[in-house]
Amino acid sequence: MVHPRPLLPAPVSREPAPALARLDWFTAPDSLPATEWHRSGRVAILLVLLTALLYLAIGFLGPSIVTLDLGPRNGSLLPPWNIDGPSALRNEWVVTAATGLAIILGAGGMWIGLRALAAGWLPRLRRCFFLGVAICALTITVPPLTSADVLMYSAYGRIAVLGMSPYAITPGGLFRTQYDPILRWTEGPWQDTPSVYGPILNWIQIGANRLGGDTVHDVVFWLQLVCMSFMIIACTLTIGLARGDRQLQARVIWLSILNPVLVWAVVVSAHNEAIAVAFGIASFYFLRRHPFIAGLLIGIGCSVKATLGLYGIAMVWAYRRDLPAMARAIIGAGIPSSIAYFILEPEALSQAARNSGYLSEASWLFGIHALMGTFMEAESASVMVSVLGWVGMIVIAWALSRALPHRRLLGLSGDADPRRDPLSIAIRTAVVLTVAWMITAPYSLPWYDLAAWLPLALYGATRLDLILLVRGLALNLAFNPGRTVGQSELMEEVIRRIRQAGSTTVMMLIVVWVLLWWYWTGRRNGTLTGSRVEDATPARLPLVTAAPSTVGPAPPRQES
User: Fold this and answer.
1) What stretches pass through the bilayer (predicted)?
2) Is 251 left (phi over 0), alpha (psi -120 to 50) or beta?
3) What does pLDDT average to over the chain?
4) Which of 297, 304, 366, 434 might form a disulfide with 276, Cβ 3.0–4.6 angstroms?
5) CB burial string 29-67: b at 16+ within 10 A, e below
6) DSSP per residue over 115-129, as a string?
7) Strand-pair partners of 67
8) Does the reported pTM lie above 0.85?
9) Interatomic CA distance for residues 412 and 110, integer angstroms
10) Residue range 398-414: average pLDDT?
């Protein structure tokens, strides 16, 4: 008897999965599939990774008009590391174009990620968080890019180590009287400007100089490490406030630790903004139960940078219906601030106030200042511009306070009134004040945006997501590079035109955009002078206003 031959199983396909499919490692299993590239979490993650690879490559190639020259290593094995790459790859036009491409890709990834979240994309929270941490950590393995501010931090610490006050002595003034291995690496235009930073930053700069010795390379590394560490701390604290809400945590991760616009401005350029903001975010943890501790943390943050006082105003406003709590918060804030500014470093406060008198080429007021200069003295024009900045801030803050609804934030029950919850009020007010200050201040830089992005991430989706993204893109491009050395005359002219024409125009349009948003929101709500209370929590709202669909909160689950 002949038995039929059994059929062989069909051969298993060995074709590799599409390259983009591997990025699904960052996507939760219950996430809705992407239907279009501009709402794809895969594409968003890919652009974030490409952005990081670009600026790491630019930094590793060595000194250029974008990458800082940190001088001889003197045998040090510490990062940052770089090679002396081919001069063709470090040409001023090549590196400027490459950094510009990185900035644009990062902003594009940010926008696509927001749309993906609105369309139902749910990332794996821990994996995306640690991806952001890894990107920040890798950033300090190469020299800082686009800005030489970190060299000024080194110089101020050096002056203090030498027994002088960085609030009275300038790096340029001291270097003209004696040679110094740290001061010689500073760059214009701030060499003849005393420190405008708070006492705590002064102590951090002293510590970096103690550890780095006479090698500016090592001093810069310790400053990079501190800035990066506090960036991670600030973002981690913000993510922790959103615990228990997967959608909100996903939003916070995307707008903070994985935000290419912020990572570029704060970590890649080694700016100290995150040190102050970390204390401000930490204060939110104590607003509901411990006003004194919340105030204490705000006071410490103000001792880092005086501009964190905006968070302090938000805290006071949150307690306006509870005067005993307000008093405890003010006392808490006053203790470290008074010790720092009036006892230990009395010159610091007056120098910090100098910052309000500067005017940036990229400011919305730059053209107005130039116009005023045609029919009045320069000093009078500067005073008028400063007044316009303050008036503009008040107007925009009022408009935002009408346009932004009151929301129940971070565990507040659906029956509670968010207008009486100190945490909900403080976060909303912090968003209002920081955004109003940033878009109207005569002197505003892209790394200042960190103070607004973090509370905005907690507040939930609004049109401000797109407004801040456009602002960050425009300013990062305007300060690419932000240095003033090593540039040809043609490059200087191109940068000047980008700042004085392009960026200034964008900043003016942003001010108009906010006012129009207030107007149309008021028309829709039936009042231009009142604000409404939303029934939904931020997790139930679309994460970008342009998205047509919304997603309800996913059930809680453990994810790896």
Assistant:
1) 43-66, 93-116, 128-145, 219-242, 262-287, 294-319, 325-344, 381-404, 425-445, 457-479, 500-520
2) alpha
3) 90
4) 304
5) eebbebeeeebbbbbbbbbbbbbbebbbebbbbbbbbbb
6) HHHHTT--B-HHHHH
7) 145
8) yes
9) 29
10) 90
